[in-house]
Structure formats: C-alpha cells, structure tokens
Amino acid sequence: MGDITAGDPLRRVGLDEEKLSGSLAPGCVHVWCVTGEDMDDPAVLRRGASDLTAPEVARAARFAKPEDRHRFIIGRWMLRHLLAAYSLAVPRKITFAINQHGRPELAGLNRLRIHFNLSHTDGLVACAFTSGTEIGIDVERMRPSRFDMEVACNYFSVAACRDIIDASEGLQTERFFEYWVLMEACAKARGTGLVRPAVGYFVFENAGRSRIRFMPSQANDPTAWNFWLVEPAVEYRMAVAMAGEPSGPPIVRRLRPDGSYNTISRTVASSGTSRWT
C-alpha cells in the first residue's frame, strides 16, 4: 500500500462537526476513505460495532470472512458519523432504509437533502456525499487476476475495448479498471445497476488522458452528468458520478480511526458536463 498522506496536514482534533455541518452546499462533493491498516484497527471496529443496530449486528455476524465483516462495520461507522457531523445529529440516531436497488438511504426527514453512496473493495471503504442531487461512487483494487477482457467486451464501448487492447501489457489492467469504476459509479448514481445495453459509454480524450467524455446510449434523460476518476491510494481507482452542476472537483479525504483526516489530491481525469441528447 502506498502512502496516501499527500495534501492538507492531518487534523488532530477529530471531526469538526461545526465546520462540516455547513460545508456540504449544493454542488459540493465530499468523498471519505478508510484504507490500509485502519481497515483492521481494533479501535475503529469497536467504535463501529457499538453504533450498529441489532439487525446490523446480526448482519455483520453472518459474514464468514473477517475482511467482509470489517468492511461492513467500517462502512456503517463512516456513514453514521459523517452524516451526524453534516447534520449535527447523534450518530446512533441516524436511521437507514434500503431502497429498491439494495443500497442504504436516509430514513425519515432529510432536511439537508443529503445524498450519499458507499463502495468498498479489498483494503478500502469509500463514501461520497452531496446535497440535493444523485451521486454514485465505485472503487476497485486493480488486481491483474481480475482483468477480464470478456467482461470489457460485454459492457464497454468498442473504443474503450480498443483502448485497453492497445495499451502496453503493464497498463491493460489499469485501463480496464478505470472504465469499470466509471461504469459502476454512473449506474449507481442512476440507481440502475449495470445493465446491457449500458446507459452510456466512456472514452478518454487528449494525450494525457485527463479528460473523460461520456456518450449516452439513448435520449431519455435530460440530466447533466459529471464524472471524476481518482487514485485514492496506489493500486486503486475510484470514480464519482454526480447529477447536476458541480461547484468544483470532489474533496477526497482519508478518515482515521480517531476522527482525524487529511486531504488526498490525486484526480486522474474529469469530465465536463455531459447531457443526454
């Protein structure tokens, strides 16, 4: 695991609820990550488990693998504490409902109109938050053993598949996962899950591959979409999809077990606003 402490100095005072509560204005995107050795930190696991409801405790206990159980506990800990910080609520009083697509949403009155999405992979859990619009996030660890060209051909555009094939052998896995997380983040923001045919396709533009272009597959949604591709840690790719006009790129932070955090500044690529036409 590479160092991911680039960016702002690590805060030592824990989550600043007063500051966070006014920071999630419309158009803002905040992403929080727990990664590395913190995934197995006994302190965060104890803290997380103490905030779980009885059904959540039962669900956590059903995971046979410790790493799966840890990801679930940490994800719920992050959601409860961050949502509480944004809304100045009590973490244990945050309640969730599962929507028709199987993902958690805030239950009851959501006066701040906070939207969020959660993703996890081997060694990393990430949560994305915004206000008043849909958001999706996906993160993957780029394992060569999980590079599958058949999957690419089923879900990616012809241009994307050619991009992967034309890449050097050492970059093909990276290319595959970059397209994969973009597709997943888009699908999660739209609430559809991956479907065939896909709701749209992605290509990278310019020599530096820093520009993402989204090509919708059908004219049935006037929504303006924005996408970002981020490297939250070495060997990882993360994509964020947001409906509407952003006020700026996502603010990506690493959250530590004691509540301190630092900013990660590794945006790999971004898009301009893309509309269905």
Provide the CATH architecture.
Alpha-Beta Complex
- How many helical stretches? 7
Would you identify the regions where 5 or more consecutive residues have pLDDT less than 50? 1-13
Q: What is the CATH topology?
A: Ribosomal Protein L22, Chain A
Q: Would you report the number of β strands? A: 14
N- to C-terminal separation?
Answer: 42 Å
Overall body shape: globular
Taken in chain order, the helices and strands follow as HEHHHEEEEEHHHEEEEEEEE
* CATH homology-level superfamily: 4'-phosphopantetheinyl transferase domain
Relative helix content: 25-40%
Overall domain count: 1
Write the layout of secondary structure elements.
Elements: H1 17-21, E1 30-35, H2 42-51, H3 54-61, H4 66-87, E2 96-98, E3 104-106, E4 114-121, E5 124-131, E6 135-141, H5 149-155, H6 158-166, H7 169-190, E7 200-205, E8 211-216, E9 224-230, E10 236-243, E11 251-255, E12 261-264, E13 267-271, E14 274-275
Parallel strand pairs: 1-11, 8-13
Antiparallel strand pairs: 1-5, 2-3, 4-5, 6-10, 7-8, 9-10, 9-13, 9-14, 11-12
Helix pairs in contact: 2-4, 6-7
